[in-house]
Design brief:
This protein has seven helices and ten strands. It has 239 residues and is an alpha/beta fold. It has one domain: Rossmann fold (3-Layer(aba) Sandwich), CATH 3.40.50.300. A hairpin with a 2-residue loop joins β1 and β2. The chain is globular and about 50 Å long.
Length: 239
């Protein structure tokens, strides 16, 4: 774990349950999930395809709500907020990175990274300055005016990471961040994540099938039959 003093959790879920209806019956995806992420902590979540990893990530990020239980972001219970307030809290406290970068094709790297700041109400000049600084931190100072189609897969993912970090969130949620990259680009992104965690102190929650990436996190949890447990082979940890 990084050298941050981690006293309070930046992200928590308590007794979270989620089920989906398939035909005449409800199928439980998450069952009484408990999780606490400390400041500066790096946590990997692994599990079989269809085990509910992306569902859990969406609930942690307030993009979906649990059927029961609660999620706290920066100490605030998400279910106690209306949609507008949840959106503002997400913008301020969380960042998101997906397997596919989801950059806006018609905008430059700089404009894509500045977008969360503009949505948050920062004026355009300050947003552009902060976006340029973050792009430099991910090694793309010379690519600010390039559109996604002019960037490699690894560069597009670096832009996505810069966009997730530009608001200086408490925690970044990542869904298969290296899953669409070649081995060299994936290794570069892994190194970048670890470097940014050390320098900036942002927490990372990474859903991944990549056990090499998972092994570089502070701890790895596995989603099995709807519950989170320490990945086999690690010492038991409190979640």
């Amino acid at each position: 774990m990084s050298n941050q003093s981690a006293v309070a959790a930046v992200l928590q879920c308590r007794a979270v349950h989620k089920a989906y209806t398939q035909g005449p019956q409800a199928v439980s995806v998450l069952r009484n999930v408990e999780l606490s992420i400390l400041a500066g902590e790096r946590v990997a979540i692994i599990g079989a395809s269809g085990s509910g990893k992306s569902t859990l990530l969406n609930i942690l990020g307030g993009l979906d709500l649990p059927d029961s239980g609660e999620v706290l972001v920066a100490g605030q219970v998400l279910s106690g907020l209306n949609a507008d307030a949840r959106g503002k809290l997400r913008n301020r406290s969380l960042g998101f990175v997906y397997q596919f970068h989801h950059l806006l094709a018609e905008f430059t790297a700089l404009e894509n990274v500045a977008m969360p700041l503009l949505i948050g109400g920062l004026d355009r000049k300050k947003a552009s300055t902060r976006a340029a600084t973050m792009l430099a931190q991910v090694g793309l100072a010379g690519r600010v005016s390039h559109k996604p189609s002019e960037l490699s897969g690894g560069e597009r993912q670096r832009v996505a990471i810069a966009r997730a970090l530009v608001t200086e969130p408490d925690c970044v949620l990542m869904d298969e961040p290296t899953g669409n990259l070649d081995a060299h680009s994936a290794a570069d992104i892994q190194a970048l994540m670890l470097d940014l965690n050390t320098r900036i102190g942002t927490s990372f929650v990474v859903v991944t099938h990549d056990l090499t990436l998972a092994a570089k996190m502070d701890r790895t949890l596995e989603l099995i039959e709807g519950g989170l447990v320490p990945h086999q082979g690690q010492e038991p940890v409190s979640v």
